[in-house]
């Protein structure tokens, strides 16, 4: 299945803090990309392939504000032009073909975002990022052998919360999915559900509950193609915990997830339980999602069985189909 229609969208490719003095390799939509810091321009994204012999520039170095090929020492400026070929004499002309493509690159929310073509939409909103009432926890990124669509659709599946995440996001004794609806506003899906959740604080201090269990209202914004903003509101205390998740489509069947856990309670508490909690949930999901066949999400609704509690997943597949058709 072609993924080229996703090239004009911003996608996360790394945590900003991960890009230091050495170039870093990543793959976005089957395109090999090298990320590096330019003294004058910040983080730069170029095609990770020297035009001379196809060497990965990400295993090279950064010297004098240039990206240096490890094979022959060719130097490339941020714009992609080759500015030095050591094998040439000082008066030799450098061929115009001795250049590498530069991609659009920016930093937001502590992440590096790249668009392989002129973007048709802005980076999705993370409203709490600038809100001083919230404390943010960067969770470990994880790469799964599945499509970004499968990874994101997992956040639309209410039926698995109490079964797969028993004792954390629900309970096996209470699997009936509550009534809910989904609003398709074109570039995003809005949906919400209220459910009873257990107090996990004896293992992970992440729920703003004082009783054994309580009502949590989950309000979602799924911005196409691959961003989830989830606010968990605790009726008992009024506290809010927000999850901001976005998937990087490395290839059609390999994806990397980046996630923040944010809260407006427990502001002086330890951050690690929130990262550990997210890591546990992801590791419970991983073998399930990686086992799904095909790894690419079927957009034809007749290819898999759908039930009434799958209405958000149905809306997501229809929205993705619309996105593909519009390309």
Question: How is this structure best summarized?
Answer:
The protein has about 325 residues and is of the alpha+beta class. The protein has helices spanning about 150-155, 160-165, 270-290, 310-325; strands at about 10-15, 25-30, 30-40, 40-45, 60-65, 65-70, 75, 80-85, 100-110, 110-115, 135-140, 140-145, 180-185, 190-200, 215-225, 225-235, 240-250, 255-265. The chain is built from four helices and 18 strands.
Unreliable parts: none
Main sheet: strands, sense, barrel: 8 strands, antiparallel
Number of helices: 4
Structural class: alpha+beta
CATH class of the largest domain: Alpha Beta
SSE run: EEEEEEEEEEEEHHEEEEEEHH
Number of strands: 18
Give the percentage of residues in beta strands. Answer: 25-35%
**How many structural domains does the protein architecture include?**
2
Q: Give the termini distance in whole angstroms.
A: 14 Å
CATH topology of the largest domain: Naphthalene 1,2-dioxygenase Alpha Subunit, Chain A, domain 1
Tertiary shape: elongated
Regarding quaternary structure, what we see is single chain
The CATH architecture classification of the largest domain is Alpha-Beta Complex
Could you name the CATH homologous superfamily of the largest domain?
Naphthalene 1,2-dioxygenase Alpha Subunit, Chain A, domain 1
Rg from alpha-carbon coordinates: 22 Å
Helical proportion?
10-25%
What is the topology?
Layout: E1 11-15, E2 24-28, E3 31-38, E4 42-47, E5 61-63, E6 66-68, E7 75-76, E8 82-84, E9 102-108, E10 111-115, E11 135-138, E12 142-144, H1 148-153, H2 161-164, E13 182-184, E14 188-198, E15 213-223, E16 227-234, E17 240-249, E18 255-263, H3 272-291, H4 311-326
Antiparallel strand pairs: 1-10, 2-3, 3-4, 4-9, 5-6, 6-7, 7-8, 9-10, 11-18, 12-18, 13-14, 14-15, 15-16, 16-17, 17-18
């Amino acid at each position: 299945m072609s993924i080229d229609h996703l090239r004009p969208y911003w996608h996360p490719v790394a945590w900003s803090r991960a890009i230091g003095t050495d170039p870093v390799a990543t793959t976005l939509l089957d395109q090999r990309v090298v990320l590096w810091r330019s003294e004058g321009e910040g983080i730069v994204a170029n095609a990770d392939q020297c035009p001379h012999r196809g060497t990965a520039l990400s295993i090279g170095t950064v010297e004098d504000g240039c990206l240096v090929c490890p094979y022959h020492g060719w130097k490339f400026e941020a714009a992609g032009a080759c500015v030095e070929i050591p094998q040439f004499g000082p008066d030799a002309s450098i061929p115009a073909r001795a250049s590498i493509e530069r991609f659009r690159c920016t930093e937001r929310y502590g992440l590096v975002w790249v668009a392989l073509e002129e973007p048709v939409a802005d980076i999705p909103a993370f409203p709490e990022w600038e809100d001083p009432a919230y404390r943010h926890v960067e969770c470990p990124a994880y790469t799964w052998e599945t499509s970004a669509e499968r990874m994101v659709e997992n956040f639309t599946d209410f039926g698995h919360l109490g079964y797969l995440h028993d004792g954390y996001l629900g309970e096996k004794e209470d699997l009936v999915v509550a009534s809910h609806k989904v609003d398709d506003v074109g570039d995003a899906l809005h949906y919400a559900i209220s459910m009873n959740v257990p107090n996990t604080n004896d293992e992970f201090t992440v729920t703003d509950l004082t009783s054994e269990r309580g009502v949590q209202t989950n309000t979602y914004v799924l911005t196409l193609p691959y961003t989830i903003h989830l606010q968990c509101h605790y009726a008992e205390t009024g506290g809010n915990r927000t999850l901001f998740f976005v998937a990087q489509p490395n290839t059609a069947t390999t994806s990397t997830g980046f996630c923040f856990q944010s809260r407006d309670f427990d502001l002086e508490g330890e951050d690690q339980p929130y990262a550990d909690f997210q890591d546990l949930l992801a590791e419970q999901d991983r073998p399930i999602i990686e086992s799904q066949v095909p790894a690419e999400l079927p957009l034809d609704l007749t290819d898999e069985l759908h039930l009434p509690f799958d209405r958000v997943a149905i809306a997501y597949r229809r929205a993705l189909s619309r996105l593909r058709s519009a390309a």
